[in-house]
# Entry
Amino acid sequence: MAAAVLALCGCAARDSAGTDAGVNAGGNAAAQLRYIDDRTSESFGTVQLGPFRSPTAPASASASASASSEGFSVWTGAAALSPTSCAHPESQATVLGRLQRHGETLRFRPRLPFAAGTTYSACVDLRRLGHTQPQSQRAVLQLTFTPSSGAASAAPTVSEVWPSSSEVPANLLRFYITFSQPMHTRSISEHVQLIGTDGTPIADAFVDIPNGLWDAQARRLTLFVHPGRIKRGVGPRTVQGPVLTTGHRVTLRIERPVLAQNGLGLAQPFERHFTVIDADRASPDPTAWSLRMPLAAHGAVTVDFDEQLDRAQLMRFVTAHHSDTGEAIPGSAQTSLDGRSWSFTPREPWPATEMIVEVQPLVEDLAGNSVGRLFDEETGPSAPLERVSPHPTASAPVRLPFKVGRDG
Amino acid sequence: MHRKTLLISSIGAGLIALLLVAAGAPGTSLASSSSSSDSALAESFERGTPAPQSMSVLAFTDDGTLFIADSIGATIFAIDTSAETRTEAGPIQVSDIEGKIAARLGTDASKVMVHDMAVHPVSNRVFLSVSRGREQWDSAWKLPNQVANADILLTVASDGTIEEFALEDVRFAKVALPNPVATEKKHPWMKELSLRSDTITDMGFTSDTLLVAGLSNEEFASTMWRVPLPFTKATTATTLEIYHGAHGEYETQAPIRTFVPYTLNGEEHILAAYLCTPLSLFKMKDLETKDHLRGRTIAEFGSGNYPLDMVVIPGPDGERLMMANSNLPLIVVNAKDIADFKGEIIERPEEYSAGVEHIKRSGTGVQQLDVMADKYLVMLQRTPAGTLNLGVQEIRRG
# Structure
């Protein structure tokens, strides 16, 4: 209910990319409290505690717990705090916000963004947070900060749209829109439209999801083209017709009222044009994929696909392993902008043993076809038998072995 | 039907009202609020995140279903608040509530703007829809909803504790308002304003219907929607016009600013107030059957003034209508005087105020009104120091 706004949530599992540069994985480094004023950071606009180590908190915290009762308090104004306590001298109420755990950091994100030029105070009591700290570490950390006008006054921009190609199949399933900074997620669907050839918005083009479907940082928005208008023979397509028609030129348009969490809207409406080509009714074909070997002990391994694959899914569903133990190899992955290739750079030099790039069969192309399954399967008496039966490799991952210094 | 017409000054109205009182006028009573339809409404609730774009108007049914009107989204949300704790009504008093909200929202008091207030009938917590947009409130002709979109819902407990009522993972239902005024339509003389912010200006209940006043996209834009409860049947709409004495003309574009459903002489009515302050009556049964309706203007309270809020409370001489104003003190009208007033203003009065007798009370700067447990009149009032105070007045009955 009302107090739930201050709920703690154990979000560590969602941050699978491990992109937080602030994480200090090693040693007994003392926890620090800082305000993230770098607007290119995904944690921009938060007060961050790290490295934070706790066997219990915050995942154990109840939904009704408030940030301040957990020992993480933020106030408007410069508070004259005692250095050993988080009690506000005038008992001023704390700023509304949410605590989230990301790996070894604990972040306070205010309910409404911190205002540029306004001074705030933050105080954490590590004992109450359940932090396991070195004996020498102070139990109370305090911070006074003033967000810079430059950071908070920057208008958001659209930094990326996927598909990146200018041509999309008539059965395109989804768009990803990445913004330059965390966005207000409310009512986004009102302001994102697909404009048809006649210059008017295509009605019901996208699945209506309240507040939109956002990543944990509220920077990437996923838009699903209405599947009922993609799948042949179902009601919405029969009544309203398909959203995309081969040969048409459509425009993805994002209106200015879309707001960033700093309260500013897009500087100007964003548009990206696409030409609709024939529907893609074939699954990605792993036999047409190729693996490029690492050229050096620290070099990247690259897989080239036969078509554009979903970039977000590639980041989740493609991994590098030791062949014998199955153990994951630490390192960083990236994809090409168009989703036609994936590459991986190891943190340590490659071992001399055989390794495997494993692609889960869930990875989809632009039309939502995965390795083992078509998004819009033909069924009924006239459908070819082999299409109706499950693909024999539908549930098996695609395994691409490689070894440094050995040609494939 | 032939209607007796009158053009009268406030003094004349007062005399007539006194005469009618002396003659013994038929009684009046408060329209009953919705309750029987509440359980049916609750059955239609689904769990989720309602996400209004603007929390323009708040209202509670008797058993505590919260209605949020979203002008920008042209949608009504009904929110389950059954987890509120039953709490005895008490004389809540919070000075400089904008300052205290500002501390919670990471800003200063000059930016905090309260858009609407409603008291929860079970917990007696005060619900406020709020934005951080007050710095842009640069004209007395503008209302908060025309300046910014309220984007946060707060509660104030009797001890002054301010929390967010988070609209996440709640049980709710919603209904879109048909044919709302288009975003492209501009205010007639404040050209920078879209009329969309006036899509919904106030809400009220009958036993089975939510009444929604505002602007539709019709040529006669002023509209009263009737939304059957629960949200299973189609919403209907009636466009409205009234004679506005201060402007000397019929108004079809200006929306009702605040209204209450009220039973007069055994017949359900809407008592509605408009900018520059005519008070008009509409018969409920006409609203139910007609596409377009002309109201009967029974009072003019004065120019240069937005009526901001309206409640009916008991009093020593029967029920009273209390009205908060942007530029006038609290206005009090005895319900009996309204019931007894048979005239209609259809010509420009000689003075700014005319019609039903009314009393201007000492409360200036009152921006919001509600009733707590039939015991307290809850008010948000701007003080001479410039702060906004949340406070109560005990309702006098005898």
Q: What stands out?
A: The CA atoms of residues 207 and 226 of chain A lie 5 Å apart.
